[in-house]
Design a protein that fits this description.
Elements (H helix, E strand, L loop, with lengths): L4 E6 L4 H15 L3 E8 L10 H17 L3 E7 L9 H15 L3 E5 L6 H13 L8 E5 L19 E4 L4 H8 L15 H15 L4 E9 L5
Length: 224
């Protein structure tokens, strides 16, 4: 059994499971203490009904229960507006949770995104996981319907770490289903079929039946 603390950071409710749901479930099954941080309330710029904020929180908790993780933390910053929020304020939300949990491993958004909230969370994660925090490993995940939609001369998400989630694909897909407001019909990237297909494709790249792909941001190794 492992005893690491893992933090998965997402800008919006559902980012955490889309990017790292299978890996979260695998960490939890191994005995790691796994937490999710949702930085924004995920609602104000997409819906007119503020009551959906609480619905999204309930969905996030249901998703976490299916994945078997410890807790979900909420930052409550404005949805789709992080480019207007001072950088230090986004930093503070992530720094607070990092200080409380002292995670060993952090998963966060990739900077190679079309979503500006995702980019802001990546930038602030780098600040919040400076060497003095004790975080030993930071990885960036891909977000279906966001990382895949960059184009032209924009830098693309590049995978160099693959986590075998062969036994956890259904857990990830079932957990994502808790986000009823975010589920789409195939062939949209946020559909059950597409999520399963992505896991198979990423797995075949690394010799696994199924995988999630990450980009290593940095790793601090004290002893070899």
């Amino acid at each position: 059994m492992s005893n690491r603390t893992v933090l998965v950071i997402g800008a919006h409710p559902d980012d955490e499971v889309l990017g790292a749901g299978g890996t979260m479930a695998k960490h939890a099954a191994a005995g790691d203490e796994v937490h999710a941080l949702i930085v924004t309330e995920g609602t104000t710029q997409q819906y007119d009904d503020d009551s959906i904020i609480e619905q999204k929180r309930d969905e996030a908790r249901a998703c976490a229960d299916t994945l078997g993780i410890e807790a979900v933390h909420f930052g409550d910053l404005p949805d789709m507006r992080l480019d207007d929020v001072p950088h230090v304020d986004v930093n503070a939300v992530i720094e607070s949770v990092v200080t409380d949990l002292e995670p060993d491993i952090v998963y966060t958004h990739s900077p190679h995104e079309v979503n500006l909230d995702h980019k802001a969370v990546y930038d602030s994660t780098l600040v919040a996981t400076r060497p003095a925090t004790g975080v030993s490993r930071v990885l960036a995940y891909e977000t279906p319907s966001s990382t895949g939609w960059t184009g032209g001369t924009t830098s693309q998400f590049g995978a160099d770490v693959y986590v075998d989630i062969s036994g956890f694909v259904e857990t990830k897909v079932d957990a994502f289903a808790a986000y009823q407001s975010e589920t789409r019909v195939f062939p949209h990237p946020r559909s059950r079929e597409s999520l399963s297909a992505r896991a198979t494709t990423r797995g075949s790249e690394a010799g696994f039946a199924a995988a999630e792909a990450f980009s290593l941001v940095y790793e601090r190794v004290g002893q070899l």
